[in-house]
Write a structure and sequence with these properties.
Number of strands: 11
Structural class: alpha+beta
Distance between the termini: 46 Å
Strand order of the largest sheet: 3-2-1-6-5-4
Number of helices: 8
Radius of gyration: 19 Å
């Protein structure tokens, strides 16, 4: 029932912004009865970047996609319609919907793991209802994640987050990784506090928008690489090395949160 759906989705309004998009994936799993859900944030007119995904299958398109090149999907979504993969084309999800704000596409919701009998107009309408009910919460969280307030940075013009901003972000990603909703890598940067500003200036343009620099309770500088494997983190580590800074992957980031 609508009441049941609302009682589930309204919980997002009580969550911290850092946790909302991860929780939205779990709600989609529960409400759409599938284990395979991915949410992508629109980065620009060409690319969308995965924020969270619930399974190996839902990560099959990769961390970044050229969503306009998925013509069959994009043609439906841009008209604010639900895409249904009636041809069972393996290049695309089985069902997809987009969340808009001010007439602009902001997020993509992709579903797999649906039985043929559930790929119907009724199920598409159900997805629209669920998407609408989570829309305000997820858009608010997206704005928070993409553009943290300036007073959360260590100083004006910096990308380095203060401890009070970075710590909850790290915890949200750590919890999401434990639930298999995200892949992330934490790098500890070998540098003294007086070098942080230089690192910020050197590395700001060499990190993705979905990556973060921040300070944890131990006073050390860390990088949070979202939706990245240890293998891919090696490329980022090389960039730090090229600029004269060594890094190490931190396996037990929880210890750093408690210091």
């Amino acid at each position: 029932s609508i009441g049941k759906i609302y009682s589930i989705t309204s919980k997002l309004d009580q969550q911290e912004p850092e946790e909302v998009l991860f929780d939205a994936v779990e709600m989609m799993k529960e409400l759409m009865h599938t284990e395979d859900v991915a949410i992508y944030n629109i980065v620009n007119e060409d690319y969308a970047r995965m924020f969270s995904a619930s399974s190996v299958k839902s990560r099959s398109l990769g961390n970044s996609i050229r969503y306009r090149e998925m013509e069959e999907v994009y043609d439906e979504l841009k008209e604010q319609k639900v895409y249904i993969n009636k041809s069972m084309d393996e290049r695309y999800p089985l069902m997809a919907n987009a969340i808009f704000e001010g007439g602009q596409m902001k997020m993509l919701i992709f579903l797999w793991g649906l039985g043929w009998e559930r790929m119907t107009l009724g199920q598409a309408n159900y997805l629209v209802v669920v998407s609408y009910l989570i829309q305000n919460a997820v858009l608010r969280a997206q704005r928070y994640i993409q553009a943290l307030e300036e007073n959360r940075y260590s100083e004006e013009g910096s990308r380095i987050l203060r401890e009070d901003a970075f710590k909850p972000l790290v915890k949200a990603y750590m919890d999401a990784e434990a639930k298999d909703l995200a892949e992330c890598v934490f790098l500890k940067i070998d540098a003294d506090p007086e070098q942080y500003r230089q690192i910020d200036q050197l590395m700001a343009k060499k990190l993705r928008d979905s990556d973060y620099l921040g300070i944890l309770p131990d006073g050390k500088l860390y990088a949070l690489l979202a939706n990245t494997t240890k293998e891919n983190a090696g490329f980022v580590q090389e960039r730090f090395e090229q600029n004269g800074y060594s890094t190490e992957i931190v396996e037990k980031i929880a210890v750093c949160l408690e210091e």
